[in-house]
């Protein structure tokens, strides 16, 4: 009887593992589809706005962070110091996310990914503030719809 229960729990664990694997796969595929859509817009001179790109970067960071921790905790038995290390790793993950975010915010506009900390929408234009300290400038892009903008920079305003 106990042997039968043991086999049932193994089958349940296997089903749960497969379900978990499918969820992670779907999340990664959805994030990858966003990249494919971005590159399919590129030949037409269009990109997604920073609103979508900032959200995408944050979701990617959360999914990767959670996936790694779920894999780690799934393969080990629970101990309290694992929970403590998990909590302590959150600031490190946020720092890595912020460093990537900051890098994309200060690099010049040759990159096709408009991840930006400081952006605004005024009328039919998206304003991206680039640079750092003495080299700050604003790039003005045309807005096609609330989620898509043109890659061509209309004008640049240097901030003194």
UniProtKB/TrEMBL annotation:
It comes from the Bacteria. The chain crosses the membrane at residues 21-41, 53-73, 80-104. Keywords: Membrane, Transmembrane, Transmembrane helix. This is Uncharacterized protein. It comes from Streptococcus cristatus.
């Amino acid at each position: 009887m106990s042997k039968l229960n043991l086999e049932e729990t193994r089958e349940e664990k296997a089903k749960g593992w497969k379900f978990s694997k499918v969820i992670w796969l779907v999340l990664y595929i959805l994030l990858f589809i966003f990249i494919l859509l971005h590159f399919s817009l590129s030949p037409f001179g269009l990109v997604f706005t920073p609103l979508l790109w900032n959200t995408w970067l944050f979701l990617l960071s959360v999914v990767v962070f959670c996936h790694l921790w779920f894999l780690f905790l799934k393969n080990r038995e629970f101990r309290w110091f694992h929970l403590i290390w998990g909590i302590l790793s959150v600031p490190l993950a946020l720092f890595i996310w912020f460093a990537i975010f900051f890098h994309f915010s200060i690099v010049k506009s040759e990159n096709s990914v408009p991840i930006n900390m400081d952006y605004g929408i005024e009328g039919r234009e998206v304003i991206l503030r680039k640079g750092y300290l003495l080299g700050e400038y604003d790039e003005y892009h045309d807005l096609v719809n609330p989620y898509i903008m043109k890659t061509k920079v209309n004008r640049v305003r240097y901030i003194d």
